[in-house]
């Protein structure tokens, strides 16, 4: 590292400190100084202005509805009871403008259908029959955007989600 400062550097530094410029500014440099003066004026106005500044990190969007989640557990229900309960629950949730329903049906591991050899093991399990009932019921499908499998923390393969349409935009 060179610690000595040359005479030219000293002279340039003194000119800089005294604001004595030895060059004539070009047109583009004049524009820069005009812009910087305008920016300085805008900045001073901004600092002196006492208006509230909106927080850009927290912008409330009017078109996005708040997520409202309801849950129904159908453990222990018969197929008829479960279908009736889910139909009423979906209608009530739609009227309350709920966005997502978590339906817990269970996996059917303790279902008594295994004792009867004349019953299909997939038919009497709510895990399969409730989503099928919803898909075949036109009165319910008009309120539903989609149904998807649940995440593991919400019941995994023993549950599913129902996403409902916005009641206010429903036609």
Summarize the structure.
By secondary structure, the chain is of the alpha+beta class. It has five helices and four strands. It has a four-stranded mixed β-sheet, with helices on one face.
Could you characterize what this model shows?
- With 171 residues, the chain is of the alpha+beta class.
- The chain has two domains: 7-48, no CATH class; 69-169, Ribosomal Protein S8, Chain: A, domain 1 (2-Layer Sandwich), CATH 3.30.1370.110.
- It has five helices and four strands, in the order ααβαβααββ.
- A four-stranded mixed β-sheet has the order 1-2-4-3, with helices on one face.
- Strand 1, helix 3 and strand 2 form a beta-alpha-beta unit.
- The longest helix has 22 residues, at 27-48.
- It starts with 6 loop residues before the first helix and ends in a 7-residue tail after the last strand.
Keywords:
4-stranded mixed beta sheet; 4 strands; alpha+beta; 2 domains; elongated
Number of β-strand runs: 4
CATH class of the largest domain: Alpha Beta
Distance between the termini: 77 Å
| Class from secondary-structure proportions | alpha+beta
Basic shape = elongated
CATH fold call of the largest domain:
Ribosomal Protein S8, Chain: A, domain 1
Order of helices and strands: HHEHEHHEE
- Spatial order of strands in the largest sheet: 1-2-4-3
Q: Architecture of the largest domain, CATH level 2?
A: 2-Layer Sandwich
Helical element count?
5
Describe the sheet with the most strands: 4 strands, mixed
What portion of the residues fall into strands of 2 or more residues? 5-15%
Number of domains: 2
- Could you tell me the mean pLDDT? 77
Q: How large, in whole angstroms, is the Cα Rg?
A: 35 Å
Helicity level: 25-40%
Q: In terms of per-residue confidence, which ranges show pLDDT below 50 for 5 or more consecutive residues?
A: none
């Amino acid at each position: 590292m060179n610690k000595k400062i040359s005479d030219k550097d000293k002279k340039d530094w003194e000119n800089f400190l005294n604001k004595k410029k030895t060059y004539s500014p070009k047109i583009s440099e004049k524009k820069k100084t005009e812009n910087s003066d305008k920016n300085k004026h805008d900045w001073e106005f901004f600092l002196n202005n006492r208006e509230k500044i909106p927080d850009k990190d927290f912008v409330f969007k009017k078109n996005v509805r708040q997520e409202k989640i309801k849950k129904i557990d159908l453990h222990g229900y018969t197929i008829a009871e479960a279908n009736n309960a889910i139909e009423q629950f979906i209608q009530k949730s739609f009227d309350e403008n709920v966005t997502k329903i978590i339906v817990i049906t269970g996996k059917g591991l303790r279902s008594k259908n295994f004792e009867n050899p004349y019953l299909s093991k997939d038919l009497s399990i709510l895990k399969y029959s409730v989503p099928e009932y919803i898909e075949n019921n036109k009165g319910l499908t008009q309120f539903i955007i989609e149904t998807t499998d649940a995440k593991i923390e919400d019941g995994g393969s023993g549950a599913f989600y129902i996403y409902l349409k916005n009641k206010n935009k429903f036609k």
